[in-house]
Each structure stands twice: as C-alpha cells, then as structure tokens.
Amino acid sequence: MPGTDDTDRTKQLAITLVDAYVRKDRDLLDSTLADIGDDTDATVSELKVFGSFLSRRVQETGVVWKPADSREAVASTVADMLPPEVEFAVITVWEAYSVGEEEAAERFTNGDPAIYLHMLAAFSAAIGLAVYKPAELISTLRIATGGEE
To answer: What is the dihedral of CA 121, 101, 37, 81, to 10 degrees?
Structure first.
C-alpha cells in the first residue's frame, strides 16, 4: 500500500516525541524534531489523534481532568525542555487552544507549526501520565496505532 511506510514513520515519530516529554529527554526531543524536519502536518495530525484518544481514556477511568489541569500539566511538561521563548509560546497557545480559542491560538503561533508539535506532544504526555505509567503509556500508543509493543 503506497504511503504506508511514511504513515508508520510519522506515527513512530509522534510516539517518540511524546516519549521525549515523558522522559524529560531533551536530546531525544531535539533528534526527533530533526527527523520530523519541515514535514510537521502529518505528525501534528497524529498527535491530535493521541490527544483525543488519551482524553477519552481519562474520561473512561473517571480521573478528574479540567482545562486548568491541562494548562498546568502542559506548562510543567515543557518546562526546561525548550528555549524560554518557545516554552512561553507553547504555553500561551495551549491556554487559548484548551478553551476553544483556536483562532487566537493560531495567531499566537506566529506561523510556526513546531509550536503545535510541542503543545500536542506535551499534552499527550501529561494527560497520558494521568492514567498510565510511563512505559505503559508509550506501549499503549504503539498498540493503538497498530505498531508493535
């Protein structure tokens, strides 16, 4: 099937990006971003799927997770992982995005799609850790995307 290798690669890169935030591993974060390069749209799309999947999972388990919790969690997840100006942009965009202000969020990115990569990967890591242990989260994402455990 054409494109399957690209799709699998994109899914793996998205999982690795979440894993970098879970582990607080800046080197892994940097190398994964380099592997993604300018082709961020597909990875952003995968990360949106992860965020939705993990949000549903949190709801199913009964863990209380409010918008304020997600803002705090994203801020703490990106803390010390990014240059200060990028960290600030990610937090600001997430605050707008998490309350449904997508138009404002888009303006705050200044056209930088990497902000969405960081924001969605940090959110997936944070919300995933609300219901899973670190290794279990990454394994669950691999299984959910049809990858190997």
So the answer is: -50
Across 30-39, 43-52, 66-75, 76-85, least confident range: 66-75
pLDDT of residue 70: 84
Would you say residue 98 has pLDDT above 70?
Answer: yes
3-state SS, the chain, equals CCCHHHHHHHHHHHHHHHHHHHHCCHHHHHHHHHHHCCCCHHHHHHHHHHHHHHHHHHHHHCCCCCHHHHHHHHHHHHCCCCCHHHHHHHHHHHHHHHCCCHHHHHHHCCCCHHHHHHHHHHHHHHHHCCCCCHHHHHHHHHHHCCCCC
pTM beyond cutoff 0.85: yes
CA–CA dist 79, 89 (Å, integer): 12
CA-to-CA dists, residue 125 to 82, 129, 135, 145, angstroms: 15, 6, 11, 16
- Between 42 and 67, the more confident residue is 42
